[in-house]
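DM from R.C. (forwarded with permission)

"hey, sorry to bug you on a friday — could you get me a structure for this? deadline for the figure draft is monday and I only need the backbone to look sensible"
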Amino acid sequence: MFEASGGPKIGGNVRTDVANTFTGNVAMASLLSAIPATVQDIAVGGTITVPTNTFNKRLTAAADVPATGAILAAGTVDGQILNLFNVDTTDSITFAASATSNVADGANDVIQPLSMISLVWDSTSSLWYTGENDPVAPYATYSHSVTLTVPVVANANPVPFDTVDAEAGSFNQATSTITVTIATPGVVTWTAHGLKIGDTIVFSTTGALPTGIVAGTTYYVSTTGLAANTFSISTTLANAIAGTNVATTGTQSGVHTANALNVIVVPTAGDYTLAFSAIMDLAGGAAANGYIWLNVNGTDVPRSNTDVTLAAAAHSVVSVTVTYAFAKNDKFRLYFGGSDTDVEMVATAAAASPTRPASPAIILSIVKVGR
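My reply, with the result:
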């Protein structure tokens, strides 16, 4: 490939007038024709097709008329790079408005004669982007404001996040509208929920939930009744493991929503860095070990566990950074555990001398760092 004066490179998500690098249109046209690429004439309002076997495409303004209102076809995979070369020596090619062209900055995109533009496809927004207006890299920060204890030593304990500190680029906790039966136990229907035993669920409604379920209270997905589209709930993790479920009675109304506080949905494929920090402690006893690890789509990530030895009433800050290649719509969880039920992640209240904010039991940040 080549580099224009000033430094921008093809594939670097930039645009440049490459004609300035060479002397004369003949030399420039010769160079562009040598670049392996498919060729297409673009008429006024014409559609630019996207090649599947190369990231280069040569274009000309058909019939020697400036091609205005050009429509660029959608990309095929997230992060796809497309270099468009206008090999016409006199006429420019202008994209249509973004609403119809699939290009984020739409009418601002003009490929001058003997020039190029490099774009990257973003599957979250379903738009092509240039270096001038890249989409914000997806990122999020979640935390939990209440102390968490290990209820069952032999089991993985889900880390719920009751506070969304920041979300961008379509990150979200798993959520859906649901229905609930009036039964013993009550059965929640959530199509293709992908939930696991012990996942933490909070309900809300536009009307009234059945008696037995309280809006804003944390419940746990039970081991009994768990199927692809349905599940029952328990009031504690220990009850969920034992299969002691919530019964529902009375009447209900409105639209119900369930939010899985410990399940984070990844908006688009790519490499992400997760950084989490927890304040771990031992409420009593001499010494015990605490653990935190990453789970993706129900499978523990190898070598992701952190093991720390804890002393009674002595806070230990556990800080871990992990980089992981996610697929779009992957669901990830953090789990924690301990060798004793006195192991806990501690939240502290705001205090004075000096005046300082509260500390969550755990805080998680995730940001996309590569495609």
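R.C.: lifesaver. The CA atoms of residues 202 and 217 lie 6 Å apart.
me: no worries. The chain is about 5% helix and 40% strand.
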